[in-house]
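HUMAN: Can I see a protein plus its fold?

ASSISTANT:
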Amino acid sequence: SGVSDAGQSSVLLLALYPGLLVLVILSAFVKYVWIALALYCALMVLFSCTARFCARPEPAGSSTVDRGGLSEAGIAAIPAFAYDAGVGDGGQVQCAVCLGTLRRGETVRRLPVCAHTFHVGCVDMWLHSHATSPRPA
């Protein structure tokens, strides 16, 4: 959409060059070169700005999946629960996003593939732009 619009604008811009050149040449014979040059410059600026406007990236948050993250539904599918320090944790599990220690009663998510546990707010923010665990395997 944005990329194809920019491509169409570029083709239009290239198609207008010969017409603008003819305009400049004809105006030279009429001795109004400055008017033709002003029109030429104004049209070039207009078409350049139009091409840049059409090629603008989509606003942030419009499609997290395009940026490599998970969709809202994908993140919500990972269950959240109140953290309860387990026997194997040693009581010192660290959230790899904020580097804070997980405390009993905090709401957390455990990623299903790697079984790493993170604060809900931390891992949700991470998963909006990444599809992998914030903690290395």
